[in-house]
Amino acid sequence: MTDALFLVLSALAVWSGWRVFRVDSMVRASFQLLVSFIAVGLIAVLLAAPYIGIATVFMMAVEMMVMALFMVMFMMNPAGLNPMSMVHQHRFAAITGGTAFAGLVAAVLLSDLPANPVPPEAEAVRDLGRELLGPSMLIFETAGVTLLATMIGAVVLSARSGRYGESDAGSVPPGLTPGGAPAGRRPAQGGGHHDHHWGH
Amino acid sequence: MTITGGIEMTLVSVLIVAAALIGIGLYGALSQQSFVMLMMGLELMLNGAILAIVGFWAFSLGGAPEGQLLAIIVMAVMAVEMAVGFALVVAVYRKRQADMTESLTELRH
């Protein structure tokens, strides 16, 4: 029964992962990715790691909702009303992806993999909780501080107020002397084609 | 012959599924022009990485919890990647009205 479930979930994870780049709507693509994540989360539950599996499902459900929101905000054709193909270097990407898959499978098949499965009586969630709040507390806390730094960075990056003024109005750093050329950057010499806002 | 055609949930089969997810994700990250679709490729690769980590933990560590801790760290990395990635998309869109990789061939503007 476990093997049959694993087979179904694996096929679902790979198939929906492939469909991410084949559907006509970006919102549908984010939901296909969500299906792939849910399938992997359920495989983790089958692998005796229920905490990781359920956390993956919950986290990805929220993350893909945010992603779908961004699709609607930024992208053309979010509803998939017209055929969509926004790809470049398709052949190179397909060959590279196929080569990566073949290389990893070869490494898996040729390696002498260790065999020391989780004992049936193990309490994985309890052990993980004790590890997180015991010997690995510092690692866990570091992840928390990293997420805090990420929140601050994301707010700073996405704020409308740029470093030297409105970010969507072309902010320019002030000069080193009053009324002088902007500090930090110089226009390209000799036929530069960039549309700089200063220095001419 | 079983109903799964002889396929069992072993470390090898789990790692092959993870390799397939990483391969598809790499294809997506390299082939997509839209920033958001590109990030979806990266997410799919991290999905494969999580599966591989959980598979290694389940079949080779004898239940030691440190392996699951690595999976949690990778999940934190996914969250960081999403947050910073989307913040960069917003910043680039505000500055250059660009939402495609071809629009960002130069760092200076």
Task: Write up this protein.
The complex is a heterodimer of chains A (200) and B (109). Chain A has 200 residues and is mainly alpha-helical. Among the domains of chain A are: 1-76, no CATH class; 124-170. Chain A contains six helices and two strands; from the N terminus they run ααααααββ. Chain A has a two-stranded antiparallel ribbon with strand order 1-2. In chain A, strand 1 (161-162) and strand 2 form a beta hairpin. In chain A, helix 1 (2-19) packs antiparallel against helix 2 (26-46) and helix 2 runs antiparallel to helix 3. Chain A is extended. Residues 190-200 of chain A have low confidence and may be disordered. Chain B has 109 residues and is mainly alpha-helical. Chain B has one domain: Orthogonal Bundle (Helix Hairpins), CATH 1.10.287. In chain B, helix 1 (11-31) runs antiparallel to helix 2 (35-60) and helix 2 (35-60) runs antiparallel to helix 3. The radius of gyration of chain B is 18 Å and the shape is elongated. The N and C termini of chain B lie far apart (63 Å). The chains are: A mainly alpha (200), B mainly alpha (109). Chains A and B meet through helix 1, helix 2, helix 3, helix 4 and helix 5 of A and helix 1, helix 2 and helix 3 of B.
Write a brief structural summary.
Chain A: It is a multi-pass membrane protein. The complex is a heterodimer of chains A (200) and B (109). With 200 residues, chain A is an all-alpha fold.
